[in-house]
Design brief:
With 111 residues, this protein is mostly helical. It has one domain (3-109). The chain contains eight helices and no strands. It has helices at residues 3-12, 19-30, 34-41, 48-58, 63-68, 71-79, 81-84, 86-108. The protein starts with a helix and ends with a helix. InterPro entries: TM2, TM2D1-3-like. The chain crosses the membrane at residues 49-68, 74-95. This is TM2 domain protein.
Length: 111
């Protein structure tokens, strides 16, 4: 795979992944073939900033966890009203990293 093409793709997707994941993704993407790269380009990712905003405004209903695919935690937050607000506040600090981790797992499944 062409290094310039991989770098330009990663630059456009930088907000969806943590910095330590970007280096790993770059190394693995340089070794893969063209057909897999096309599949990766078609993936859509959750924006961590949008997820944070949803967490701030509707976090006590667990919507933020449902969006990133944590259905069990979303149901738990919904039934406990966000852990009486405590869980909701904690998620304001954790949800962006959780979103980036879920995005990384999604792309790593294709690598």
């Amino acid at each position: 795979m062409d290094a310039q093409r991989v770098d330009s793709y990663l630059i456009t997707q930088v907000k969806f992944f943590s910095p330590q994941h970007l280096n790993l993704l770059r190394e693995q993407m340089l070794q893969m073939d063209e057909s897999r790269f096309v599949q990766i380009q078609m993936l859509s990712f959750n924006d961590p900033m949008i997820t944070l905003l949803i967490s701030i405004f509707a976090g006590s209903f667990g919507i933020d966890r449902f969006i990133i695919g944590d259905t069990g935690l979303g149901i738990g937050k919904l039934l406990t009203c966000g852990g009486l607000g405590i869980w909701t506040i904690i998620d304001w600090f954790l949800i962006m990293d959780a979103t980036k981790e879920k995005n990384f797992r999604k792309i790593a499944a294709l690598l």
